[in-house]
Amino acid sequence: MGNAHSLEIDLSDRQLTSVTLQQLGALVSGPSAYRLLSHIKQDRGNYVQRLYLRRNQLSYLPANFEVLLSGLTDLSLRSNELNQFPLEITSLKQLVKLSLAGNGLTYIPADISKLRHLEWLSLSSNTLDDLPVELAKCKRLTHLDIQKNRFKALPNCIAHLYSLEVLLCQKNSISTIKLEAFPPSLLTLNMSFNLLESVPLALYNLPNIEALILSSNLIAHIPVELCLNNTSLINLDLHTNKLVIIPQEISQLKHLRRLNIAINQITEVPASIGDLLMLEWLNVNDNQLTELPDSIGNLRKLIKFGIVQNKLEKLPESIGRLTQLAKLDMRRNQFRWLPGSILKLRDKQDSTQNITTENREDSMVRALRPGVGSLKTILMGENEHLQYYEGIVCEMNNQDAIVYSSNMDNISAENLTHLHPVGSLSEIAARRLLDTLPAPAGSISSLQYSKDRKEHLENLPAHILPSYTLDKICLNARQCEACLRLYCESDIYVAELGCMGDSRVDVPVRFRMCSYRCAKAFMAIDKTSPQFYDDDHESNGLEALDTPSHNELSSNLLQESEPGFDSNLLRESSVTSTATTRHFSVTKCLQSSFRALFSLQHADQDLAVSVPNMSRLVTLSNVSSRPSLPTTGRYVTTDVSELERF
User: What integer pLDDT is reported at residue 15 of this predicted model?
Assistant: First the structure.
C-alpha cells in the first residue's frame, strides 16, 4: 500500500476524525511514509491515482491536499461527516471518479464544473434537493447517483448530460419530471421508491435504455408508448404500484429478460406475454390473477417464475414446456391439482425412479416419471385445496371428484355411468369434425396449430358448421394425454402423485383423458420407462408420457379391457385437400354424428380416437443441458453496483 510506485492508498474504516498530511503519510506504510509522500510530490505525484477514505469521521480535508495529490483519478469520501462540499476537490483536474455519498451535504457548488474529466459522481445519502446547472459542463459524466436525498423533481441539468448512461435517483420524493427528455445515451434508470403517479412523458422514447426500474411508486397505467418505443429493454421492474392492466403491446419488448410486476392489482396477464422469448425471470406475485395464458409455455428460457399469492386454481398445460425452469414459487393460491405436464420439469439429472412415502397413512413405494427439465425448487405451501388423489378421477360440478383406484373390479353400476357418459350431440360432432380436419389444422398436429385450425374453420359456410360448434372447437379444444387426439368435453382424468425438487415435494397432478378407455390404457403404462418428447412439433407441453410401443400397447390394453373394441378404430384419419372435398367431409361427418348419437352404448366406444405414429418422437439425449441460474448482476450492469459502493 505504500511504495514509490503505489497507485492506491486505502485508509477506509480507520475511525479518523481529522487527518493531516503527516498523519496521512504515517498511516500509509509506517514512519517513513511522510518522506515517501514528499518524494511523490516532487517526482512522482501522478503515481498516486486512487485514494479511499471511506467510513471515517472526517469533517474536512487537510491543507494542501489538492497540491500533494494532484494526479488523483479516483477519490472516495463515502460515509464521513462532511457538511460542506470540500472546494479543494475542484482543483483535482484529473479526477474521473468522485464519491461524497453518505455525508451531510446540502448543496453542490457551481465549481464542480471544473472537473472536466469526471465520469462517475456519487452523491447519494445526503440532503440535496437540487444540482447546479453548471454540472452539465461535465461532458464526460456517464454515471450519476443521487439516490436517498430530498429531490422533489429531477434537476434540469440532467437533460444536458449527453454522455449519461446510468442514473440512480431512487428513494427521493420525486412526484413529477419536468424534463422534456432524458439523454438518449441513457442505459439504466432507477426511479423506484418515489411518488410518481404516472409514467413520465420523458420516458416514452429512450432508444438505448436497457434497465428501467419504476417500482414502489403510485403508477396505475403502463402507456403503450413505453413498450413500442423502448424496445432495447432487458430489465423492466414495476413492482409495488397500482397497476391493473398489462398492455398487449408488452410483446414488443423482444429483448426483455427480467419482468417484475409483483404487488399490484393485475387481474389478467395478456396472451402476448408469450412473445417475450428471451424472458428468464418473471415475477407476478401478489396480484389478483385467476388464470395464466397458455402462451406462458412459449417462454422457453424462463428460469425463475413467481406466482405467489394470487387466486389461481389451475396452471396451463403448457407449463410443461418450461424445461429450463429452475425455481417455481406458487404458494398461497387456490390450486386443487396441477397439470400432468408439470412432471416434465423434474430435473433430468435426478435418476430416482421410486420413492417411499413415509408421512402419509397409505405409505407405499411410488414410481416416479423421469423428467426432462431443470427444476430444483418448487414451493407449494398454503394451497389448502390441494387434492392428493391417485387413480382415475371423474370431476363433478368442477369441484367434487369421484376417485377410482387402479382396482376397478368392485365399481358399482351407478358409478360406472360417470365413466361412460353419453356425449352431447355437439361434442360428438366436434370430435368427428376434429378427426377430419386437414393437417396442420388437424388434431394430430396438436394444439400448436390452434390459430390455423380456427382460421380454417371460420372459412367454412355457416350451414356446414354452426357458430356454436365453431366456438366450442376454437375455445375449448383439449388434447388427450393418452392418445394425443383433440376433444372438447370430458370430466375424466388420471390422478397421480409426483415428486419434484431437491426437497422431494409431493405434487398432485392430473392427466387429461378423452375417455375412460384412454385412462385405463394410460394407467397401465410403466411410469419409470424411458420417456420420449417432441418439443419442436408439439409446442404446448401436452405430450403424452408414453413408451415407444404406445400404439401396440394401447391397442392391446383396450382389447383386453373392452372385448367388443375394434382395433381398426385406432387408425390415422385421412387428409383431404380441396375445399369442396373438405366441405363434403364435414357435412358427412355431422350427419354420421346424428346417427351415432342414437346408437351409442358407451360414449367413449363410438368416440374412440386414433393414436398417432410415435416414430417422430425424439429421445431425452436431444434435450439441451440445464443452464446456470442467473444472478442479479445479469440484469443490472456491474458498474451500477460498483457505483453504489464507491
Answer: 85
Distance of CA 630 to the CA centre of its chain: 12
- What lies within 8 Å, CB to CB, of 555 at 6+ separation is 567, 570, 611
Give dist(CA 317, CA 293) in Å, integer: 10
Answer whether 144's CB lies under 8 Å from 167's CB: yes
> Distance between CA atoms of 533 and 629, rounded to whole angstroms?
24
Q: Is the peptide bond prior to 440 cis by the omega test (within 30 degrees of 0)?
A: yes
For residues 4 and 176, give the distance between their C-alpha atoms in angstroms, rounded to a whole number: 52
- E-only strand ranges, 154-210: 166-168, 188-190
**Contacts made by residues 4-10, CB under 8 angstroms, sequence distance 24+:** 4/36, 4/39, 4/40, 4/44, 4/47, 5/44, 5/47, 6/47, 6/48, 7/47, 7/48, 7/49, 7/50, 8/48, 8/49, 8/50, 8/51, 8/52, 9/48, 9/50, 9/51, 9/52, 10/50, 10/52
> What are phi and psi for residue 259, nearest 5 degrees?
-130, 120
- Residue 595 to residue 580: CA distance in whole angstroms: 23
Three-class HEC string of 128-158: CCCCCHHHHHCCCCCEEECCCCCCCECCHHH
d(CA 306, CA 283): 5
Q: Which of 464, 439, 461, 463 minimizes the C-alpha distance to 452?
A: 439
The total of other beta-carbon atoms located within 10 Å of residue 636's CB is: 21
CA-CA distance, 34 to 22, in Å (whole number)?
Answer: 6
pLDDT in tens, 165-197: 999 999 999 998 988 889 999 999 999 999 999
Give the span between the Cα atoms of 408 and 411, in whole angstroms: 6
Residue 640: closest CA among 49, 194, 211: 211
**pLDDT digits 0-9 by tens, 528-539:** 765 544 443 333
Phi–psi pair at 448, nearest 5 degrees: -65, -15
Residue 560 pLDDT grade (very low, low, confident, very high; cuts 50, 70, 90) = very low
- Residue 284's nearest CA partner among 301, 307, 267 is 307
Q: Which residue has the cell 383406484?
A: 405
Distance, in Å, from the CA atom of 145 to the CA atom of 13, rounded to the nearest integer, reads: 22
Angle at which helix 425-436 crosses helix 467-476, to 10 degrees, equals 70
Amino acid letter, 389:
Y
Return the C-alpha torsion angle 353, 533, 271, 441, nearest 10: -150
Dist. CA 154–CA 176, nearest whole Å: 8
State which of 347-356, 473-482, 588-597 shows the largest mean pLDDT.
473-482
Q: Are the beta carbons of 45 and 94 closer than 8 angstroms?
A: no
pLDDT tens per residue across span 217-239: 999 999 999 999 999 999 999 99
